[in-house]
Amino acid sequence: MSPALREDAPSVRAAIDRVVTSGSFILGAEVAAFESEFAAASGAAHAVGVGSGTDAIALILRALDIGPGDEVITTPLSAAFTALAVMMVGARPVFADIDPTRLTIGPDAVAAAVTARTRAILPVHLYGQSADMEALARVASHHGLPIVEDCCQAHLATAAGRPVGTIGVAGAFSFYPTKNLGALGDGGAVVTNEASLAERIKRLRNGGQSHRCHHELPGINSRLDEMQAAILRARLPHLGGWTAARRRLAALYHAELAGAPAVTVPPPLDAGHVYHLFVVLTPRRTRLQQHLAARGIDTLVHYPVSIARQPALAAMAPADCPRAARICDELLSLPLHPGLTDRAVRQVATAVRELQEG
Ligand SMILES: *Cc1c(COP(=O)(O)O)cnc(C)c1O
Q: One fold for both 3-238 and 239-357?
């Protein structure tokens, strides 16, 4: 369940009223204010509000002039939207298999996947933890490639102390309702430290217009609207507290699940992890899901199918990525949101521990 409207409810309602009264619904004062507030919160010089996280990725690639004939190296373990965004600009997603411990794209596999057509590397900061950005930066600089960061699960996350989205050339965020910062509908943002890239994306999101009715670039229509921007402005001040709550609950899960026979809990590898999800690995997933469901505990799988094996990607002739495919059979996301109580976490952990190995 999405943790909609909690302590932020009064300010969200006030924001909605403010927009209704203003009569301004597209590219007005709320979006401009949210862009500067989100940039500041994210440690980036610029933010550009767009229609979704998927569009944020596609707009960055488009702004980098990546298109037909080009390849973008990305991970097979993510929301498929990461790879679909590459296809939206006409480029080919090329999959590099995951690091089996971190579960993010493997830097050695990236190095092995580079060809003369490669134009960018697109890592995903999965479940709230950054990809191995130091190793990826070495590969990227060796080949002179830009890194585009998929930060859709990593609001306020850092990688070795650096804010995600500012390590590569730009970062893409989603405000889908269940993300760590969610709107009451679709929304997204690009962050970057490069002023010229931010300006280009501002044009591209609005039909490529330089000014009204003058279309200089082949843009698209992907604007964060005033209503969602106002709602996000009401919620942004809570994000730090929500992130702290996620981290505290995740630490409790780690303590309570230590030595549980049927699951492996991936170790946290970066203190900047923001726990969008709390994911464990189990060879007995169906059994464990049933066991938890019988106790009223709902779980989900992020993700049951490697993107490299999705039918929609078949025409891209993806490399198979066996490590991701194997992990996809074992992933299980336990309940986690900032409103969860310690007691609920202990109950879930107790139920998980009841299931024996084998
Ligand atoms: C949610 C998500 C997306 C897509 O974001 P939308 O706003 O739904 O388009 C892309 N990548 C990752 C890793 C995501 O979690």
A: no
Q: Where are the domains of the chain?
A: 3-238, 239-357
pLDDT of residue 75: 98
> What CATH number does domain 3-238 carry, 3.90.480.20, 3.40.640.10, 1.10.260.40, 3.40.630.40?
3.40.640.10
List Cβ neighbours of 129 (8 Å cut-off, separation of 6 or more).
Answer: 102, 104, 154, 157, 268, 269, 270, 272, 273, 274
52 lines ligand 1 (CB under 6 A): yes
Pocket test for ligand 1, best of 153, 180, 274, 333 (most atoms within 8 A of CB): 153
Residue 54 Cα to ligand 1 middle (Å)? 6
SS3 assignment for 321-339: CHHHHHHHCCEEEECCCCC
Ligand 1: atom nearest CA of 54 is: 9
**Whether pTM exceeds 0.85:** yes
Q: pLDDT tens-digit profile of 117-151?
A: 999 999 999 999 999 999 999 999 999 999 999 99
